[in-house]
Fold this protein.
Amino acid sequence: EIGGVFVSVDVTDDASATSALDQAEAAHGAARVLVNCAGIAIAAKTVGKENVPHSLDAFRKTVEVNLIGTFNIISKFAARAIPLDEIDGERGVIVNTASVAAFEGQIGQVAYSASKGGVVGLT
């Protein structure tokens, strides 16, 4: 109803991220607002029941989506914003979504908490 366009994107994939930004720009012109809120949470403790360690692949996947994916989109968005004319001294705005888990951690969310802590540091 508001004329928006939905674009599916894998934030961990360069080609997908570029394509999504291209599609959004084709539909609405140069973007001046980026909201990063992609995130996954895999429930696992550092060491689970019966002394089973957290899956390294699951930890990597969470960090890849939540932290590296956030950076991937930021860098591509910022590169497109640099040549834009300033409006009130600004070219655009980036909003990154983290979580209280970034500061307090959460039982069973070691990968999520670490990745969101990284988003806080990145921001």
In short: The two ends are 32 Å apart (CA to CA). The longest strand covers residues 33-36.
